[in-house]
Amino acid sequence: MGQGPSALQTCISGIANGRSGFAAYPTTPLYQLAWVKPYNLDIKVLPEAVVRPRDSNDVAEVIKCATKNGYKVQAKSGGHSFGNYGLGGGEDGVITIDLQNFQQFSMDNKTWQATIGAGSLLGDVTERLHDAGGRAMAHGVCPGVGIGGHATIGGLGPMSRMWGSALDHIVEVEVVTADGKIQRASETQNSDLFWGLRGAASSLGIITEFVVRTHPEPANVVQYTYTFLFGKSGDVASTYSAWQDLVTDPKLDRRFGSEFILNPTGAIITGTFYGTETEYRASGIPNRLPSNKEWVGNNDWLTAFARDAQNEALYLSGLATPFYSKSLAFRRDELINTTGISNVFKWTDKQDKGTPLWFIIFDATGGAVSDVPMNATAYSHRDKVLFYQSYGIGIPLSGKTKNFLENFHNQLTTWTGAFGTYAGYVDPKLEDAQEQYWGSNYEELRRVKKRWDPKEVFWNPQSVRPAA
To answer: In what residue span(s) does the FAD-binding PCMH-type domain sit (predicted)?
Structure first.
């Protein structure tokens, strides 16, 4: 692939102009450990180069070097792609542009719009917005995830039912396109590109800076946790059924976000309500949740984020491990019925998981996310009310673990007929991935791709393909 590493390295060295720490190659000592740093150790990756530019001009010049020498390009923000797609996704020879130096931040105190560098991690974003006037935006709660990938694929979190997804907050971006030009994109400037970047940015360009709208952060946050310990999965089926009825109720207070987590020791229900405990009680939600073995706490915004991050870390660690994952999105008419819930959970008890480290997360969505028309952005799951994602971790990862998660997934699709999944839960095994990720928006995405990147400079194994 390409004209050879010497020509590429010479080109990149010219951009660095003597700066240290700018780029590394497979011959660089500790290349995998210090530069590549794959997240999913079950997927082997060997980028042709990892580059850490300092500004947008550097990004533009690296893209020119890549195209001149025949290489594909992918951006890496936090580096938490399940398929290591920022590193090539198992296809060797990709140029990775690591955005870790893009940490710029500012707040316009008139519009309350924030400018955020694309290498910023979600934990830092939360603190910077708080320090800039007690502001906030919707995003996930894993503090080590980078906003560059998160906010361009969707960006879902417990506050999304109240405020929408992270990408719904984007007002404008600075982006470097396949021709090496630095562009601005918004509803009024390069609007087709802006449409596609909000849902499929890794296929269309490298965003270096976001301008986002923000909200006053809630003064009070009520957090709920219910733990069902040492029970069989079949024993918690009725609890799951009641939880599913609650979180998919069209009248559910939008200030509430929740997860149901099935694990080897039983199950956990988490809930986050953005309001006072009095408002939480008045919403009627507590009456529909299990009330024994529960923990309820009233926290401020930063404390609540830290607790959510701590809970999430129990399941989605920032540590690199070999893991396997499946996921699915459900419309209201695709929800699994009571009989199906009972059968699937009992089936789960009988399986050889191949590992003690497995968990299955059901996550409420909808609310404000569904207020936005399906074709308003490239993100296509506006009609979904629930997601599930499964994980199995093993050192080494066994075929039994993969089979268990594949067969659990097949059980769900058999009972529900659901099709499609969130591209943030990337699944390298999907054969019809583009249709599952982008649904009815995919053909328009292909046209945008043809206009802005017809030669597929920005590429991974499941990226958008240009229209014929």
So the answer is: 43-217
